[in-house]
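Lab notebook page, bench 4
Experiment: in silico fold of construct C2
Operator: M.H.
Input chain length: 663 residues
Purpose: comparison with the prior construct
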Amino acid sequence: METEYVPVHLESLAAFLIRHHSDQLRSITLSPDPKLHYPLYIDYAELMDEDPPLAHLIFSKPTHYLRFFDDAAVWAHKIIFDKLKVSEKGVEKKFIHVRISIGGSPLECPETFLSIGRVRVKHYGILLTLKGTVIRSGATKMYEGERIYMCRKCKHMFPVYPELETRNSILLPSSCPSQKSKSCEGTTFQYVENTIICHDYQEIKIQESTQVLGVGVIPRSILVILKDDLVDIVKAGDDIIVTGTLTAKWSPDLKDVRCDLDPVLIANHVRRTHELKSDIDIPDDVIKQFKQFWTEFKDTPLKGRNALLRGICPQIFGLFTVKLAVALTLIGGVQHVDASGTKVRGESHLLLVGDPGTGKSQFLKFAAKLSNRSVITTGLGSTSAGLTVTAVKDGGEWMLEAGALVLADGGLCCIDEFDSMREHDRATIHEAMEQQTISVAKAGLVTTLSTRTIVFGATNPKGHYDPDQPLSVNTTLSGPLLSRFDIVLVLLDTKNPEWDAVVSSHILAEGEPGKGNHDENIENIWPLSMLRRYIHFVKGYFKPILMKEAEKVISSYYQLQRRSATQNAARTTVRMLESLIRLAQAHARLMFRNEVTQLDAITAILCIESSMTTSAIVDSVGNALHSNFTENPDQEYAKQERIILEKLRSIEEFTDITDMEEL
C-alpha cells in the first residue's frame, strides 16, 4: 500500500485539491506576496470519503505524506495560476501548507483525540489531536527547514530536511537516493549554494483543562511546535485544539546525565477557541423550552425566576439571597465602551463572608460547574505569581507562564479562603478585577494580559463578626478591594430555633432513601446541564437597555447611599453605581428580557442592601443565611417595592426642598 502513494503521484493529489478546494487555491493565487506561507484547509472526513487509503497513510505516516500533500498543493496552485487571465495573474507562490482539520471525522475517536496525560509511546509518529490551554508561549524564531545536496557521482540533486528531534541536525543518506540511475551508489554529497529554506518557528506549552480531570490528578502538559502560518496565532490563556505529529525531542546534553526524550507535538492544524471556551451546545429545541417556560410564568415571573434559582446548589436548604447573587454574578451585565475607548466591565464579582459551616465552599464549587470555564484555587496556596503570571527561564530564554486569573479569562476564578492570602498577593488582583488586564514587567518582559474574569471569593470573618464595625475591619480586606466586589454577602450563623429545626429536618430527609426534599419541589428543580445552557444562552443573546423608570430608581438610591455612608464608606463609591447597573442588567437577562425595568432595579437594590449589615433603606433586610424561598414571591416583591419607592420619593422631595432653600 505504501508503494502506491509516492511523490510521483502528485497529480492525483493535485486533482483532488482542484476538485474540492479550487476557491481556496484561487484566493491564494490572487494574493500579492510570494514569500508568505499560505494554509490550505482540508476536512479529514472529506478525504476519507474521497480516498480512504490516502487518508489512512496521512494518519499513520503524517511526516512524509503531509509533505507530499504540500507539494501537491503548490502544483495545483500552478495549474490554476496558468489558467488565469493575464490581468488577474499575480506571482507564483512557493509555500502552501495543507492543514488537516478533524471536526466530525474518525480522528475524534478516543484513541486519537485523547487527553494530554494519556499520551504514550504507541502514539509516536501518528496524526494526533490534543485539546488544552496554552500556559506558555515562546518567542518566534527562525529555523532551517530544508537544504539541497548533490551527488558528486551522478549529479542528482535531492532535498534534506534537518530533524527537529535532534536539535536540527542534518543526517545525510548512506547512498545516493536517485531513482533514475539505480546503478549509482554514490556516498559523497555536496551542498548546493543558496538552497537553504528557513521557516518561522515557535514553541508553546499546552496543559490539559483541570475541569475534565478527577480530584487528585495533576494536570499534564506537552510542548507544541508551531511553524510558518501557525506562528503567533495563539497566546497564553487560550483554549486550543491542535492536530499534529507526535515525536520526541532530545534534551540538551549534560555531562554525566542520562539523555532523555521529551514528547513534542509538531502542529499541523490549530483551532483557536472563542467557540471552544463555551463548550456548551444549545440546540433549538432547548431554546424553545426556555421560551415555553417563561410563557407559563407570564403572570408570575418571580415565581419562574425562583424555580430557576432552586436548581443552584439544591443540596443546601434555603439561602435564597445567596443563590440569587450567584446567578446574577455568573450572568453579569453588559460591557460599556465610551467614545474615548474607556471600558466599564460587564463581569460582576461576588464575595461571601461567613461563619464556618455556612456552605460558602459548596457555592464556589457549584458556580465552577455552572461556568463554561473555571479555575478554583485557595488563598493559602496561591501566590501573586500563581494568580497572575510567572516569568520562567527555559533553555536560556525567559517566558511568561499564565496564572489562575489569565487561565480563567472569559470564565470564572473561584478563590476560597480569601483571607488567607498575603496582603501583597491580594493587591495584585486589583487591576485584574477592575481594568480586566494584568500588566507585567518581569525579566525584561513588559506586556499586558487579558483577564475578563469573574472573581468569586469566600472568606471567614476575623474572629467573631461585629455588626457595629465596618466590613473592612471584620474581614481585614482593604477598602479598595472591597469596593471592587459588586455583592458582599455576610452569612452569620446566629441561633434561630425555627430555622435550625427546618434545616435539620431537610438534611435528615435527604439521607432517607425515597423521601427526598418535598419542601423544595425537587421534581421541578432544573438539572445542572440545563442551568449551564440557560446561563450561557442569556449571556450571549440578551443585551439589556436601561429604561427611564429603572434609571430613576438606581440614581435616587445611589444618592441616598452617598448621604448615609458612614459604616460602608469604602463601598459607596461610583463603583456602587456601576454595580447596580450591572446587577439590574443581569436580572433582566435572568428574566429573559432585553429591557431593564423597575423590577430589575429594585432587585439590584435588594441585593446591595443584603450585602450591607446596616441597611440604608429597607428596615428588615435580615440575615442572608436565613433567607428562604417564599410561596408567593410576586406578592412579597410588591410590598418591598412599595416601601422602597416611598422611601426614595421622600428623599427626592427632601432634596428638592433643600435645593430651594439654598437658592
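Observations: The first helix runs from residue 10 to 30. The domain at 109-279 is CATH 2.40.50.140 (OB fold (Dihydrolipoamide Acetyltransferase, E2P)).
Next step: discuss at group meeting.
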